[in-house]
Specification:
Length: 309
Amino acid sequence: MASKGLSRCQDYLPFVVNHTPSRVTKQVADDAVTYVERRLSRAEEQALATSEGVDRMVVEIDGCEIRTAVFTPIEDSTETTPVYHNPKKQKVINWRDVRIGFARPLDSPSKTYVGKKAAYADIVNDVCRAAVLEGMTPDTQVIGVGDGGIGLKEALETQFPTLLFILDTSHLKDHLYETAEALGIAQKARTAWVTPRLDAICAGQIVTVTKELEADYARTPHARVRRLIGYLTRFAQAVDYHRFTKLGYPIGSGEVESAHKAIPQKRLKLPGACWHPDSINPMVALRILRANEWWDDFWKEKREEKLAA
């Protein structure tokens, strides 16, 4: 193992000579963004060349927040730094959404991951290209699993005409518990309020549950109940969990949540870590290379480019 590691270091040595580690890391990370984009762009070529594809494809998307920091001038301040007398700056902390998605054939463990700090439309477009790389054709039934984030379902429907959207069960459960809390139900009694409604929804009785909630709202109007009714109405076709399970479809987003822990969070959510917003996508791209097993191909291409220069 040691000799293999040494060999790999020697292969990469030409990229490090005469450069600081931080500059090399930044350059390699920027190159990773380009490589991932180029790799995904091959989806169109593959779609034209593929006559047969998979029957059913699973796609999942989920987001997490990454802590960022930027330094900005302090308004109305004349303070300067002690050595170079530059204007003093303040550290501004923020949180940015990083979204991870993947596509895989329903009956296969093979996955292609994508990820970046981007709007739903952008990440869904990348997931669509990943799905093509995994064998999606216009006739493929796409099963999309996600939370109730505003715009996610709609963005998926735009890119996947055959989409069957499934609402993540834990997200539905959270909404029910939040409603119980807002109604003032004691913590010990909330499970008794949530469980029968959740069981009924899972069994395909969402219309019955919605009508009961509407009757409750008519007797005692409450904004949180009205919000839950709207939520259930919006996802009425996405919570038929009994039928989905019989078809072998996933009803939870555990796969993509695990991907979040392994891809962005393992590197970008270290204790106390802060990132410049512009550094997030390049670092996520490096993690995507590893997750998709594109790492060796990426470095092979870099070596060939260096030798050809």
